[in-house]
């Protein structure tokens, strides 16, 4: 078979076939009377073998070794090809992500593109100061895609940078809530924590709904952050978790403040007081927790609280009794 016929059959150009011949990779076994290259069936079979190995990413030198070296073993080479392919996929995925983010920002011109690229690079900087400046300027200087800000916020460990990123997301409103909601389902505890913290700073009805759903999250840290944020927003669903935080001495001062804010609504004051009293009466509650619960009653208005404090002023625990009596005097003096 002549070179032109082989090229049509194999899909390998005549020029490449001549290159293979110059490398000694595929040599035609014969010539015609006119001096033209003539390929046998074995030659064509070898061409297909060469192309098959090239499709795996082997260089022509590696292909030659694989076909001609009897002692050649493919395992190490295949492992190396797997590593190279993974690295290439990672690089290409990163490039695709970057391009999508630039496209999502809808840049008006190349100047905008360059600004976006600079900010994206700054968000990925090893310098915390650079990342913080990028977060603070992301809202004003260039329309950085919300996906990039969410990804940065969910991975940021520096508290100052994390705060700047949460602020930037809050300025964008509900644009990143879908991605942050995915963060709440992350298998990584730190990511879940950062997600709920970011949602808590977005003053939006959809954010509030996400926080309410987060009260049922399996992660207790997520539930606590959600409760604190909801308490500040006047959402009664947060009350049980907030009281648990007081009992467990976990951000108990913040939890008590949130309960106080909720109790400014008359409809909730008696409900909160009744729950605090129920906890105080529970036999399994430790003495230190009973003292914190008594202190939490200080800023809860209403008759239910006053009656509870009057009873507690005679409590067997002297500290609880003295605390309740003191709170009562302060309330009477108002």
Question: Outline, from the CA principal axes?
Answer: elongated
Spatially, the strands of the biggest sheet line up as 1-2
* Share of β-strand residues: under 5%
Low-confidence stretches: none
Backbone CA Rg: 35 Å
**What is the terminal-to-terminal distance?**
108 Å
Detail the topology: elements first, then pairings.
Elements: H1 3-10, H2 14-22, E1 30-31, E2 37-38, H3 41-54, H4 60-68, H5 74-104, H6 110-123, H7 128-137, H8 146-155, H9 159-171, H10 177-184, H11 189-200, H12 205-214, H13 220-232, H14 239-248, H15 252-263, H16 266-281, H17 287-296, H18 303-312, H19 318-333
Antiparallel strand pairs: 1-2
Structure description:
By secondary structure, the protein is an all-alpha fold. Among the domains are: 3-72, Multidrug-efflux Transporter Regulator, Chain: A, Domain 2 (Orthogonal Bundle), CATH 1.10.1660.10; 234-334. Helices cover 70% and strands 1% of the residues. The protein contains 19 helices and 2 strands. The chain has helices spanning 3-10, 14-22, 41-54, 60-68, 74-104, 110-123, 128-137, 146-155, 159-171, 177-184, 189-200, 205-214, 220-232, 239-248, 252-263, 266-281, 287-296, 303-312, 318-333; strands at 30-31, 37-38. The protein has a two-stranded antiparallel sheet. Helix 16 (266-281) runs parallel beside helix 18. The radius of gyration is 35 Å and the shape is elongated. The termini are far apart. Keywords: DNA-binding. Residues 1-69 form the HTH merR-type domain. This is MerR family transcriptional regulator.
């Amino acid at each position: 078979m002549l070179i032109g016929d082989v090229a049509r059959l194999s899909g390998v150009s005549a020029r490449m076939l001549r290159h293979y011949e110059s490398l000694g990779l595929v040599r035609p076994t014969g010539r015609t009377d006119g001096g033209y290259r003539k390929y046998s069936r074995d030659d064509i079979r070898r061409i297909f073998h060469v192309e098959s190995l090239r499709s795996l990413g082997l260089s022509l030198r590696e292909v030659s070794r694989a076909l001609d070296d009897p002692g050649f073993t493919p395992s190490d080479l295949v492992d190396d090809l797997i590593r190279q392919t993974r690295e290439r996929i990672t690089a290409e995925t990163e490039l695709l992500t970057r391009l999508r983010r630039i496209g999502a920002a809808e840049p008006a011109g190349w100047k905008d593109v360059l600004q976006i690229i600079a900010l994206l690079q700054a968000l990925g900087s090893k310098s915390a100061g650079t990342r913080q400046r990028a977060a603070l300027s992301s809202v004003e200087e260039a329309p950085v895609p919300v996906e990039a800000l969410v990804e940065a916020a969910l991975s940021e460990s520096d508290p100052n940078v994390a705060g700047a990123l949460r602020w930037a997301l809050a300025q964008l409103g509900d644009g990143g809530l879908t991605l942050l909601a995915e963060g709440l389902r992350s298998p990584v505890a730190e990511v879940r924590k950062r997600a709920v913290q970011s949602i808590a700073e977005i003053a939006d009805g959809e954010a509030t709904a996400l926080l309410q759903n987060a009260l049922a999250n399996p992660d207790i840290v997520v539930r606590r952050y959600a409760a604190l944020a909801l308490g500040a927003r006047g959402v009664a669903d947060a009350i049980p978790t907030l009281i648990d935080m007081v009992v467990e001495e976990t951000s108990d001062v913040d939890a008590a403040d949130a309960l106080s804010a909720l109790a400014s609504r008359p409809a909730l004051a008696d409900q909160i007081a009744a729950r605090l009293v129920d906890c105080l009466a529970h036999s399994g509650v430790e003495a230190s927790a009973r003292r914190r619960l008594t202190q939490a009653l200080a800023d809860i208005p209403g008759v239910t609280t006053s009656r509870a404090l009057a009873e507690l002023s005679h409590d067997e625990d002297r500290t609880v009794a003295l605390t309740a009596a003191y709170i009562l005097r302060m309330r009477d003096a108002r």
